[in-house]
């Protein structure tokens, strides 16, 4: 089915001017960028977005990192977009990521791992609504 998923190009990648190279990976995989904006998250916004990880030992570090520099938030659309995006991203830890994936090519560490992607249909809908209004989604 045609799905939409929320993607974030993280501070380690925007700092290294990798937005275009990462977007090319999405487009080459057949994912269409139907909404996109570059924003700087506050600590509060980062904390709210990652609230599900609140009890994890890396939560504070994760929020500080996500608020440290601009991010590009985007909605990707396509056939099986949620799973396809996860394939294109590769494993969370770049040490475990397959060749050709975004994280294998660009990520620095499990924390500075260049991209975020929704993990399921329900979280995709929640995460898209966190950043975008319906008017901003142009299929
Ligand atoms: P993401 O898909 O954005 O969702 C939660 C993030 O937490 C994950 O990517 C990683 O970047 C980050 N993360 C997971 N494990 C660790 C860890 N051990 N140390 C720091 N960050 C982590």
From TrEMBL:
Gene3D superfamilies: Nucleoside diphosphate kinase-like domain. GO terms for molecular function: nucleoside diphosphate kinase activity. InterPro entries: NDK-like_dom (IPR034907), NDK-like_dom_sf (IPR036850), Nucleoside_diP_kinase (IPR001564). Keywords: ATP-binding, Cytoplasm, Kinase, Magnesium, Metal-binding, Nucleotide metabolism, Nucleotide-binding, Phosphoprotein, Transferase. Its cofactor is Mg(2+). It catalyses: a 2'-deoxyribonucleoside 5'-diphosphate + ATP = a 2'-deoxyribonucleoside 5'-triphosphate + ADP; a ribonucleoside 5'-diphosphate + ATP = a ribonucleoside 5'-triphosphate + ADP. Its main location: cytoplasm. ATP binds at residues 10, 58, 86, 92, 103, 113. SMART domains: NDK (SM00562). Residues 2-139 form the Nucleoside diphosphate kinase-like domain. HAMAP family: NDP_kinase (MF_00451). Homotetramer. This is Nucleoside diphosphate kinase. It comes from Albidovulum salinarum.
């Amino acid at each position: 089915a045609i799905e939409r998923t929320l993607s974030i190009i993280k501070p380690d990648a925007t700092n290294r001017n990798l937005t275009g190279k990462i977007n090319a990976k999405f487009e080459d995989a057949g994912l269409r960028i139907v909404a996109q904006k570059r924003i700087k998250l506050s600590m509060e916004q980062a904390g709210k977005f990652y609230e599900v990880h609140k009890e994890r030992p890396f939560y504070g570090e994760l929020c500080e990192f996500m608020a440290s520099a601009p991010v590009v938030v985007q909605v990707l659309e396509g056939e099986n977009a949620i799973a396809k995006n996860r394939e294109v991203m590769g494993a969370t830890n770049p040490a475990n990521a397959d060749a050709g994936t975004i994280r294998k090519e660009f990520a620095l560490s499990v924390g500075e791992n260049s991209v975020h992607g929704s993990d399921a249909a329900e979280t995709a809908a929640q995460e898209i609504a966190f950043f975008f209004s319906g008017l901003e989604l142009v299929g």
